[in-house]
Design brief:
single chain, about 170 residues, alpha+beta, four-stranded antiparallel β-sheet, three-stranded antiparallel β-sheet, 3 helices, about 20% helix, disordered N terminus, DUF3305, DUF3305 domain-containing protein
Length: about 170
């Protein structure tokens, strides 16, 4: 039996997400939520969400403990994010069905394709700008792993036999 070479560990970083909740942002809503920032996770943050600021109207909460791994099969999505001109974090978040004053982040990604699938599935997805150091880290990974599909020229349909037209 031939040993299978071990797969090199995937690049990963740990991050925390900051969500802001606003009470009665207008006369039609009781609560509004937004993703404010994605920051490097620090051991001092602990494992549980913690309120950073709450003045009764605006509340910012830090949610630590998200691990973001890069995958080769998402390299095209990373490339699309980076080539957009303004690369971002994509954050999926949810609101509690029973208590609409509570919301939390579910997952974090850097892949434009993955964010598109979440949006197609009717998920709540917000984005916040990447810092230059994370963008450079993602760019290095994408440069090493993304190979665009070669473009194939399609023959005009008028040159294809009628029984082979699609």
């Amino acid at each position: 039996m031939t040993p299978v070479p071990s797969q090199p560990e995937r690049p990963r970083i740990r991050v925390a997400v900051v969500i802001e909740r606003v009470r009665e942002p207008n006369r039609w809503q009781d609560w509004a939520f937004s993703i404010v920032d994605v920051v490097p996770d620090e051991p001092a943050f602990g494992a549980e969400p913690r309120v950073l600021r709450d003045d009764g109207r605006r509340c910012r909460t830090l949610y630590p403990g998200f691990e973001l791994e890069l995958f080769r099969d998402q390299a095209e999505g990373y490339h699309l994010n980076l080539s957009s001109g303004a690369p971002v974090w994509f954050v999926v978040w949810r609101i509690d069905d029973e208590d609409p004053s509570l919301a939390w982040p579910e997952t974090v990604s850097l892949s434009y394709d993955e964010a598109g699938r979440w949006l197609d599935a009717q998920e709540r997805v917000d984005n916040v700008p990447l810092t230059p150091d994370v963008a450079a880290w993602l760019q290095a990974y994408t440069d090493a792993n993304y190979r665009p599909e070669p473009k194939q020229r399609r023959r005009p349909q008028s040159f294809v036999a009628p029984d082979r037209r699609g």
